[in-house]
Amino acid sequence: MNKNKVELYPPEWAFQFHGHLCPFMPLGYRMGIIAIQHMGIEREKDHTLHVICELGEAHPQTCMMDGIQVATGATYGKGLIEKTFYGKLAATFWFPQKTPLRIALKASFLDQFGTQEFFAFRKKGIEPSQIPEEITMRAIEWAYSLKKEDIYEIKEAIDFVYFPKKGSFNKDKCSVCGEYVFERYLRTKDGKSVCIPCSKY
Ligand SMILES: [Zn+2]
Ligand SMILES: [Zn+2]
């Protein structure tokens, strides 16, 4: 596969992981690939790259975040991706000693994209898995046909400051339920260490 193809097409397992065919998971995937190529880093194996997404919840297009995770390896499970809940279709990619990179979907792109038939189905409340595949594919292929500059605003975010949380293996047992709790989450009640649910705060 040439470099351009890799940038465009998520692997088949990405669609299986995501659960349905939709245009936003691939758009997130392409965003993630652009970010790691621009920053000159590899797909994250461990815990270094962080992605700070400006998405919120209960709005369309949050599917992008699954594509970003697939492309970058900065997964939710590894604690490498988070949301600011700004309700914006943008993300900043942070890696030590590299200039952070912010990528946003352009309003001009979204205006045009919104005229795809796929969105007429979505606005009627039809879930992506229920939309005819050829209609979804038309929206995906249309986005694939565009140059990245037509879709994304790509900007180095020199002023972006981020401090990843320091990992700790320390844990203790909750004196009420007896379950292990990682240090950061232990609370003190009547002089004893307790978990958050048992603390009833
Ligand atoms: Zn989706
Ligand atoms: Zn407890």
Bound molecules: zinc ion
Number of domains: 2
Residue ranges: pLDDT <50 for 5 or more in a row? none
Strand content: 15-25%
Could you list some keywords that capture this structure?
single chain, 201 residues, alpha+beta, 60s Ribosomal Protein L30, Chain: A, Wheat Germ Agglutinin (Isolectin 2), domain 1, 2 domains, five-stranded mixed sheet, two-stranded antiparallel ribbon, 9 helices, globular, binds zinc ion
Model description:
With 201 residues, this protein is an alpha+beta fold. The chain has two domains: 154 residues, 60s Ribosomal Protein L30, Chain: A; 36 residues, Wheat Germ Agglutinin (Isolectin 2), domain 1, CATH 3.30.60. The chain is built from nine helices and nine strands. Strands 2-1-3-4-5 form a five-stranded mixed sheet. A hairpin with a 2-residue loop joins strand 8 and strand 9. Helix 3 packs parallel to helix 4. The longest helix has 16 residues. The protein is globular. The chain binds zinc ion (ZN) (2 copies). The site of one zinc ion has 8 residues, from helix 9.
